[in-house]
Amino acid sequence: MSPLAHREITKKLSEQTGVAQRQIEHILDRYTDMIVESLSKGRNVSIKDIGTILVLDTPAKKGRDLNTNEPIDIPPSKRVKLRPCVSLKQAVLKGIM
Q: Given a cut of 80, is residue 49 above it in pLDDT?
């Protein structure tokens, strides 16, 4: 199954609401920009009926170069994780969505 594309989302929202597709695209782009901006500042983002997008710090650690098998230092970094809400988990498990 292919992913739901941005274009499909804007088209469906336009059909369901009667709002022009360009306006919906503009609103969704600003919404995405706000989420990215908040995450880049280290703030978690909570989205109703979806869950919380978290910014997590990963500590520095030791690793191994797969080509030479020599130890390497992996620097600390950040990663993004979605912690889904209970209703989203249940819907996915039931295949309702």
A: yes
97 pLDDT exceeds 60? no
Percent of the chain scored above 90 by pLDDT?
A: 89
- H helices of the chain, in order, are 6-17, 21-40, 86-94
Clarify whether residues 69 and 87 are in a common domain: yes
Cβ neighbours of residue 61 closer than 8 Å, sequence gap 6 or more: 73, 74
- Are 61 and 86 in the same domain? yes
The boundaries of the domain holding residue 32 are 1-41
Among 94, 56, 91, CA closest to 76? 56
